[in-house]
Description:
323 residues; alpha/beta; 11 helices
Amino acid sequence: xxxxxxxxxxxxxxxxxxxxxxxxxxxxxxxxxxxxxxxxxxxxxxxxxxxxxxxxxxxxxxxxxxxxxxxxxxxxxxxxxxxxxxxxxxxxxxxxxxxxxxxxxxxxxxxxxxxxxxxxxxxxxxxxxxxxxxxxxxxxxxxxxxxxxxxxxxxxxxxxxxxxxxxxxxxxxxxxxxxxxxxxxxxxxxxxxxxxxxxxxxxxxxxxxxxxxxxxxxxxxxxxxxxxxxxxxxxxxxxxxxxxxxxxxxxxxxxxxxxxxxxxxxxxxxxxxxxxxxxxxxxxxxxxxxxxxxxxxxxxxxxxxxxxxxxxxxxxxxxxxxx
Length: 323
């Protein structure tokens, strides 16, 4: 804006190797940060100068600190990380360390909503993560679980989701039981392989340290010293959800993820997720975190797609109300 004063701020970096990672090849990360915030960067030796309007420079400095934290931990930086650092800096989120360290990568929040979600996963034994596709509900829960497993703070991870699409037709699908259910559990496997070397995933699956199973396999069990993740929970029935929530044993934690607007149950069947939120959502020790399209961290187009569908659904509901 005209009439607003331009300021210059300075930041010295002692580690030139990490600084090059922060700046990116040919300073591509700094260029992206500067373009989005309207700030000019000048890097000479270990000193970085930031020039622009005061608020933009302060936001850029806060974003840089977040990116520097990732660089110091050896986490690779991508364009999505730059955009995430800007969102978090603009929101003024506290700079506490929510990074989850796994064998293959360090994973942290990419939006204020994700920061709230990760903080809840750190501080609560039962967390409901709600929101549309692409908001990191399941991925961040798996990251927290793997981080605790590799540090020895839990003995095992149990990952479960309902195979609603198969219904009672599993018996008609080809192959043994594992081959029948694996397609419904594939997103959970994908997250694991993103965080652990493939040989470790195979070894831990074989030993039982990591268990990936449909929710029907949870009946009658008590899960102690475990991190339990229930994915696509909107497709559980109330009885199934009650069964899952009461599996928690000593030193166990659970993350329940789902999108209440995407229920695939037969028409008229109440979602176990909606039911559970009404019954236990307000209990002490339980956290409920709502993620929105602002927390979508996939391709930028995904955010626009999510918003377009939400707008159409809102319009349909409005029309039904007036009908």
